[in-house]
Amino acid sequence: MYSKMKKEAAAAAVVSQNGSVNGSQNGLSHSMAALGLDSAESAKAALPDPTADENGGEENDVKVDIKRGMDTATFRRVGKQMVDYVADYLENIGDRPVLPNVQPGYLRDLLPGAAPERPEDFEKVMEDVESKIMPGITHWNHPNFHAYYPSLNSYPSILGDLLSSAIGCVGFSWIASPAATELEVIVCDWMVKAMDLPSHFLSTSETGGAVIHGTATESTLTCMLAARERAIKDWLKEHPESGYFDAFSRLVCYSTDQTHSMIVRNASFIGIEIRRLHLPEGRTSLNRKEFVQAVEEDKAKGRIPFFVCGSFGTTSSCDFDPVEEIGPVCMSERIWLHIDAAYAGAFLFCPEYRPLMRGIEYADSFNFNPHKMMHVNFDCSALFLRCVEDLFDGLKEDLLSGLKLMKIFKEQGIPDYRHWEIPLGRRFRALKIWFVLRSMGLQGLRKSLRHHVQMADHFAERMGADPEFEVLTKSLGLVTFRVKDTDAVNALLYNLICDDGRIHLNAAETGNPPTYYLRFVCTSHAEQKDVDFAFDVIKSLTARLRSRRLSLSEVQAEREKMLNNLAQQRRITSTG
């Protein structure tokens, strides 16, 4: 208490000396004397030093560049070392185990409980990266990584991200960084042309345009918001006696049980009912009859069908919803048709895969992730729109209507991208796409995509030629297969593969009743020898499995473990 009073009196003395407080000097002198302070100078001395750290050191003694964290000479030196480290990491990634051998919470035991007070040498930081961080990394660009759809990177993309980080702009409007906005418009138009997408997705079209988001989940949520507002506006025109929230409560959207789980999360986020249409055994894509039946049922109940998410390459089997069948229904019913092509969309760079997109001209929005198969590192998701004004209305602000924003965009040809997405701040993602397109060229991208499919073809051939296994599906770079045995045996094989750790893949189940199977995805980094190695591992572990005789309790235990694994995979699904 005395210490607190002494500091308060000292502060008062300093304020009085500076002339900002008027009062009795005699009274102040008596108070200072009582506290053992004989002058304003001694009062100043009693104040805590604002430059002293908690350990008694002085900030003035700290040798650190407060502008950029380190001096330019040091940055040049360690920056070159980091480039070498990254190059060595990617060049020799196959020498590392694809999966980390750590337990949850391992890192807390290795790192201090609080941030350091004083700067540390960057060499020490990098030592900890190699000894503490890298042991806990799952290497997504490893040739033995076959679990999820790839998240490819490349040296040009890494350099683009480096430059974007250095520029450090937050490109929410044109003036915030004109090049960031204009390059985004240009590279999106490049992709529309290179993938032969409908011309109404071009920025130069009458109503359309494109934007780069972070993930497919973000893009789909944005479109759901736009579709919601469009549907409510349509309803209120026909039912002026109704209200906004009455219309809101009637909305319903659609997907199948094979659609990515993001659609369920997004529907929950915006408070909308979703119908997950369950497909019969043997089918993994929606058909027109089932969709029309669901729409008619809901309309009869007074609901408003407003959005359907069609899959262009499902997560579980890389199947394709027949857009040419459901598209006309959406057009006549004014239901927003969104195409989720997160993984498979990049294959439209190759002319031979464009027949897969029949009916895309009906789509209100089309989304794919350059960060999957386009060698653009995470995060990067491109969204193409038929009518940008609908998006403006869905993300409306009080200042400007969607019509006014649309007029500005089309008259100037320059968007303010903060009106095209949920976040206001945004990264300069177009830069890394531009670097990749110029460094690899469309020919390089097509070569990479075709190699990816060829490696999957090779794996499917090896599996199909072995009587031990059956190939369920082969689509682009994904092969689904199983041992010719029970679900429990296949679950045990999957667990053996996980415990073995030499390769990484995952499992899924589809159908009604469900069938359990394993998924094998090739990355563009894998060569034929890597695919053969994966097959040999699976084959040897299957032989080990066959040498065991499972009791009924073991089969039940494996079934329970399988269900837990599937539940975890649904929570940690492939990136959006």
From TrEMBL:
It comes from the Eukaryota. Homodimer. Its EC number is 4.1.1.28. One of its GO terms (molecular function) is pyridoxal phosphate binding. Belongs to the group II decarboxylase family. Gene3D superfamilies: Aspartate Aminotransferase, domain 1, dopa decarboxylase, N-terminal domain, Type I PLP-dependent aspartate aminotransferase-like (Major domain). It is an enzyme of class 4 (lyase). This is Aromatic-L-amino-acid decarboxylase. The modification N6-(pyridoxal phosphate)lysine is found at K372. GO terms for cellular component: cytoplasm. One of its GO terms (biological process) is carboxylic acid metabolic process. Keywords: Catecholamine biosynthesis, Decarboxylase, Lyase, Pyridoxal phosphate. Its cofactor is pyridoxal 5'-phosphate. Residues 42-63 are annotated as: Disordered. InterPro entries: Aromatic_deC (IPR010977), PyrdxlP-dep_de-COase (IPR002129), PyrdxlP-dep_Trfase (IPR015424), PyrdxlP-dep_Trfase_major (IPR015421), PyrdxlP-dep_Trfase_small (IPR015422), Pyridoxal-P_BS (IPR021115).
